Amino acid sequence: MSPPCLLHISSALHHVSSMSPSCLLCSPPPTCRDSSEGHIPAAGSDMSLYSFGLEPLSCHTWNKDRTQIAVSPNNNVVNIYEKKGKEWLKIHELTEHSGRVTGIDWAPESNRIVTCAADRNAYVWTLKDAVWKPTLVLVRINRAATCVKWSPLENKFALGSAARLISVCYFEKENDWWLSKHVKKAIRSTVMSLDWHPNNILLAAGSADFHCRVFSAYIKDIEDKPGPTAWGSKMPFGELLLEHKDCGGWVHGVAFSPGGEQLALVAHNSSVTVVDAAQGKAVTQLTTNRLPLLSVLFVSPTELVAAGHDCCPVQFSYSGPGALAFVKKLDIPKQTSRGGISAMQHFQNLDKRAGDEDSNEQGTLHQNSITQLCVFSGQRASVQQYSSVGLDGALVLWDFKVRLELTSLPVYKMVFITEHSVWFIYIYI
């Protein structure tokens, strides 16, 4: 038997110190698993919900310190709200677009907002003298824009569109304007989702042709030549590094892992897929029995959260090729009051309505499809909170805390006998 590790001993002593002697005397041997075995993050009970009205929310983004949020109520306007106590107060309204806004992203360091819409335009917004001023971007598309995303270094952004191409836009200082270069290779339908690799070069795109692709978005005019990655070594602009053809439906969401070696995607056939570049681009797909998921993000190197038409986030775990598993739903069902209903009334309701409740409400915090998930606090490798918006006009902040997973592990047992009690200490190995 191997010797006990210090982490397990300290965990045991902390467990003992938090319990009374009587509890220790009658409690069964506690078992837990530490960080070397893998923590199971869990949704906290203190989630906060706020409604912005009856209009559906199509997209949202946060400023750097999370005191302001930009949302679009499914029209041509972007509203910026600021947290005042427990309320969100509207402080700005961005109205330059003439079509429905389809994407928003807020660069945390440069404090610039980029928006795109069905009017085939994109704007970069800069705050000057307490007023957001737009700059038109030359995206050069003839169909609606569908999504937009700043790169990690904020020196460029990617814009997807129904024109079957991706516009990678960057600022040209000489002419003082935003230019774009097009990625067209192999894309046969609308680009529906985008995500940047942490190296600021690679770009993942999901599209309506049931394909997920990874391209190089290297622009030599503004950045140094990139080094090789697990996805490939040759990276001229537009180079196709991955083309996964068997996604099973429209690819609604894509997300790189914190290290950039895995790519997760969710498709319209209710599947979740992980492509692992560190394992020879091995593909692991899990088809769920739920409604299609629309958004996905990594909350740790091995844990994913996705949400969509089921109105609640769900957690998945990935530990290697062939090891993608559903963990649990992260929502807390709404508790409805029965108002002192009697047993007779309960069974009468069962007989009349085939149920004991007469309500059209969903048993979830969101009452309609969740359209987007965003990181609210924490780093990409250890997300502490994330946010969701939905077609019900609601914003929900979700806690994602670490708890110890109960499991069966061998222990060392020490017994201390005092005058009035017997103490048991279990040391995990």
TrEMBL record:
Extract one GO cellular component term from the record: Arp2/3 protein complex
Q: Which domain of life does the protein's organism represent? A: Eukaryota
Q: One Pfam family name from the record?
A: WD40
Instruction: Please report the residue spans annotated as repeat (WD).
Output: 94-128
Spell out the subcellular localization from the entry.
Cytoplasm, Cytoskeleton; Nucleus
Q: Which PANTHER family match?
A: ACTIN-RELATED PROTEIN 2/3 COMPLEX SUBUNIT 1, ACTIN-RELATED PROTEIN 2_3 COMPLEX SUBUNIT
Its name, as the record gives it, is: Actin-related protein 2/3 complex subunit 1A
Source organism of the structure: Liparis tanakae
Q: Which gene encodes it?
A: ARPC1A_0
